[in-house]
Design goal:
heterotrimer; A mainly alpha (315); B alpha/beta (290); C mainly alpha (301); B: 290 residues; alpha/beta; Rossmann fold; 6-stranded mixed β-sheet; 5-stranded antiparallel β-sheet; 13 helices; 11 strands; globular; C: 301 residues; 10 helices
């Protein structure tokens, strides 16, 4: 089991390395001084000099890469071009907000998605199944930032039920939660349709398994067969698909943070892009990639734990 | 109460049963009666309709199957044209089934103890502990080693033979009037097959359960059945006691079946016998067998 | 010489079969309600994009400060934005922006992905491994983050948007081409040994491309909705096309700024995106079902 985890971690590290490599190459492939490329034409000579020193732009390419990787492994993501604050500190400040947002959205999507998927299977072929199907297809079509805008429009502007700006303070849990509802709902709802379709399809496939016939032959109630056995079986495929979709959640959170003016990784990256603050962007991209890869690994481990056959095979 | 009924009523009574899928007949005009404590075998090739017949007894056919006939009654209850709830009431105490592939009979994600406890859903007056005791008892009855340990095993941890014993145990646990075994030994090797058949003979003696054994293998039928029903192309072509049929098969198909049995073919180099379906079809139409 | 003639025969025979197949596929797509809706939407959007300058009643940059944020009226069917520009015009021209960007970037992505996939499938193992690693790494990043990284280096603008879309799309197309190449390599391996090396490559093209065109087309069609969304998203962030150039994303971001005054611009900017996404998704799925009926049967089970 530990070997399995180690292998996944190793692959994750390799992927992160490739991402860093790609960013580096991009920086160098564009003609001109990489400092100007990264920081824009409005950057001051001091900023460019500082950038040069930080990245070691005078040295050969592989040395620069090695320097970057070396700094990464000790957690040094460089410094903000304008404020000279360490990027890592800046990220650490906003990361909790993004993570809470992503988790809350995930919770919405899974809870609603699984519930709707089960409903669709329980009433298969009848009108609830139909309605849920239509709803699912419809919501896949609406991009996350549009959903955020609509949610903002409906609940904050028109109905004025919930706050529309900011995240509140962590020290005020109730206020924080109130501010979390709309953005997480906006992101999550985009995934509910997707999740419910996957759950429905996986459960229908599970219902074709031979052991379902066994259960039926002993008179076990259909509802119980679906909810206790088919659901468990379908969770395996559902989880791996959801894990892949987690990237979509991160994407959605970027837009949601901007629309709802929440502090977070996405908003910070966006602000950095506007101000040509390349080290910050580089830092956030690496952190996001690391988060993403971690989720993949966790999903793989979770799948292994849930299926006792895989778990036994790994031990 | 059940003993008294057994003296008067057949366990299973099927009259003129026909089953078809979208107009294509799978079973045509079958009569079958099983008395309490009998072991009846149905023999036929794949596609003869024997499995379909077995599944129809418990209503396990897909919704596209059209079931018609004069009667289909299990332990006195008429199930022809019945809905899901009627079948649910007989599944288990009326008849319990053992399927062909023991490896896929149970859910791979739940422990066997939990699954069998699930199957005892009817016994609302029993506590979880009491249910476990009943399962352990029936595990012992089918000859499983370490019965208590088996409760926490997952299906993939057991061999095919052991899993089939668990399946038989599950069926017995319901104290059914009829045990339907759909080719229970086809997926097992010869030694395991011998053990399972031996087990079934013992169970008939000890528990008085009637058994409907489906097989395509003459040897299995010969081993444990009292009566045999020969099916071909959805019809019953011959039935009678095992001794009578084996000694004197009358129908051309039965004769062909015996001729093809490897154990009955004399050693030596000669052409393998083949069942001539064309000849059988014309013979059937000629004879106008119902 | 005889080979040249035989390939020509194959080509013409194939073309004839292809036109018949297109008609049949279209009919099948129209037979399902979702497919019909998708086709109608796709065709309408394409028509609007092509005819945009002819349909638009006003100039997209005609500012009228006195007429800002007017609601829908006879003169302005969808009202005006915060600079008094007619929203209907901007939406129509935004269609053209969306479709142009989508088609150009998809074409570029395909142009890059097909050779990459071929090299990965046909070339040495180490190169294949390297390319697959790059594909996996690219697709393991949320596209918006990598997109933002590209934007910070290249500056906002249409070409950046196209590059981001290409970077996002190439891995999945290349993987498809690679898979087809691998399976074909296994199959034609024996034949390739018997024939000269040069023509084995030609066989690869004659056999590979037809096999791969279908799935690629479906993938591209389903992808168009994502691409349009990506362009709109980047424009919404102000990182896409220039603010004067009409784009659905621009309309949305302008609308977002005035969302507390009037919801009209936000609604006006978002509905086309939704329609386009629905249209291309439905059409793409119906196309997939039509071209591979085996998959369709599994879906309806």
């Amino acid at each position: 089991m530990t070997l399995f985890i180690l292998r996944r971690l190793g692959l994750g590290v390799v992927i992160l390395f490739v991402v860093a490599l790609m960013l580096f190459s991009l920086m160098h492939m564009i003609p001109g001084d990489p400092a100007v490329v990264a920081l824009g034409s409005r950057s001051t000579p001091e900023m460019r000099l500082a950038f040069h020193q930080m990245m070691g732009l005078d040295r050969p390419f592989y040395e620069q890469l090695g320097l970057f990787v070396g700094r990464l492994s000790v957690g040094d993501l460089g410094v903000d071009v304008w404020s000279r604050r360490p990027v890592l500190t800046m990220i650490a400040e906003v990361l909790p907000h993004t993570v809470t947002l992503a988790l809350a959205s995930f919770a919405w999507a899974v809870a609603l998605g699984v519930a709707l998927g089960c409903l669709a299977v329980l009433y298969r072929g009848r009108w609830p199944d139909w309605m849920i199907g239509l709803f699912s297809i419809g919501f896949v079509a609406v991009p996350s930032f549009v959903v955020s805008l609509y949610t903002l429009l409906l609940f904050a502007v028109t109905l004025n039920w919930l706050p529309a700006i900011g995240a509140g303070e962590m020290t005020d849990p109730l206020g924080y939660l109130k501010a979390l509802i709309l953005p997480s709902f906006a992101i999550g709802i985009g995934w509910v349709g997707y999740v419910s379709r996957i759950v429905r399809a996986a459960m229908i496939e599970a219902m074709n398994e031979p052991y379902v016939r066994t259960l039926q032959s002993f008179g076990v109630a259909q509802r119980r067969v679906i909810l206790r056995y088919a659901l468990r079986q379908s969770m395996l495929s559902v989880l791996s698909v959801i894990a892949i979709g987690f990237g979509g959640l991160l994407t959605g959170s970027v837009f949601a943070e901007i629309v709802f003016s929440r502090p977070g990784l996405g908003k910070m990256t966006y602000d950095a892009v506007i101000t040509r603050n390349f080290p910050v962007v580089m830092g956030t991209v690496m952190v996001t990639a690391a988060l993403y890869v971690t989720c993949m690994i966790l999903a793989d481990i979770l799948a292994a734990v849930l299926d006792p056959r895989v778990k036994r095979a790994l031990q | 109460m059940r003993k008294a009924q057994q003296k008067t009523q057949p366990v299973l009574e099927i009259e003129e049963l026909s089953i078809s899928y979208a107009g294509r007949p799978a079973v045509s005009n079958v009569d079958l009666t099983i008395q309490p404590g009998e072991i009846v075998g149905i023999i036929g090739e794949s596609g003869s309709g024997k499995s379909t017949l077995a599944h129809s007894i418990l209503g396990l056919l897909p919704p596209s199957a059209a079931v018609t006939g004069k009667s289909l009654s299990l332990a006195g209850t008429n199930l022809l044209g019945a809905g899901g709830s009627a079948f649910r009431s007989v599944r288990g105490p009326g008849a319990a089934m053992v399927f062909q592939n023991p490896m896929t009979t149970f859910s791979p994600l739940h422990r066997l103890g939990d699954q069998l406890t699930e199957l005892l859903w009817r016994e609302t007056n029993l506590s979880k502990e009491e249910k476990r005791e009943r399962i352990v008892a029936v595990f012992k009855q089918v000859g499983l080693s370490n019965p208590v340990g088996r409760l926490s095993n997952y299906p993939f941890e057991l061999s095919g033979g052991m899993l089939q014993r668990v399946a038989i145990a599950a069926a017995l646990m319901m104290r059914p009037s009829l045990l339907i075994a759909d080719e229970p030994t086809t997926a097992l090797d010869v030694t395991m097959e011998a053990q399972i058949l031996h087990l079934m003979r013992e169970l008939r003696t000890e528990a008085g359960v009637a058994v409907l054994m489906i097989s395509h293998h003459l040897g299995v039928i010969a081993e444990i059945c009292d009566r045999v029903v020969v099916m071909y192309a959805g019809r019953v072509v011959e039935q009678g006691s095992v001794e009578a049929i084996f000694a004197q098969p009358t129908h051309p198909y039965t004769k062909a079946l015996f001729a093809c049995e490897p154990a009955l073919i004399a050693p030596g180099l000669h052409r393998m016998p083949v069942i001539d379906h064309e000849a059988l079809r014309t013979a059937r139409e000629g004879r106008n067998m119902a | 010489m005889s080979e040249a003639i035989s390939t020509m025969h194959v080509a013409t025979g194939f073309n004839e079969r292809r036109t018949f197949r297109i008609a049949r596929t279209l009919r099948q797509v129209l037979s399902t309600p979702l497919g019909a809706i998708g086709l109608v939407l796709v065709v309408s959007i394409t028509l609007v994009a092509i005819l945009a300058p002819l349909i638009a009643p006003y100039s997209p940059t005609a500012i009228s400060v006195t007429n800002r944020l007017a609601g829908p009226s006879v003169a302005h069917w969808l009202g005006t934005d915060q600079l008094g520009r007619d929203l209907f015009t901007r939406v129509i021209l935004g269609t053209r922006t969306a479709m142009t960007v989508a088609l150009v970037s998809l074409a570029a992505a395909l142009a890059a992905a097909i050779p990459l996939g071929l090299i990965a499938g046909y070339g040495p193992r180490w190169l294949d491994g390297l390319l697959v690693l790059i594909f996996d790494s690219l697709s393991s990043l949320p596209m918006i983050m990598f997109g933002l990284a590209i934007v910070v280096l290249l500056g906002p603008g249409v070409s950046t948007v196209i590059l981001v879309i290409v970077a996002y799309s190439v891995p999945s197309y290349a993987r498809l081409v690679r898979a087809q190449t691998l399976s074909l390599k296994a199959r034609d391996f024996i034949r390739a040994e018997q024939v000269m090396n040069a023509s084995s490559l030609r066989i690869l093209f004659v056999h590979l491309l037809p096999n791969v065109v279908g799935p690629l087309l479906i993938l591209a069609c389903l992808d168009i909705s994502t691409v349009i969304t990506l362009e709109a998203g980047l424009s919404f962030l102000g990182l896409g096309v220039k603010p004067q150039v009409p784009s659905w994303g621009n309309i949305l971001s302008d609308g977002f700024a005035v969302i507390r005054n009037t919801p009209v611009p936000v609604l006006v900017g978002s509905v086309p995106i939704i329609l386009a996404t629905i249209g291309f998704t439905f059409f793409g799925e119906a196309l997939r079902d039509a071209l591979d009926p085996k998959l369709a049967k599994e879906k309806t089970a």
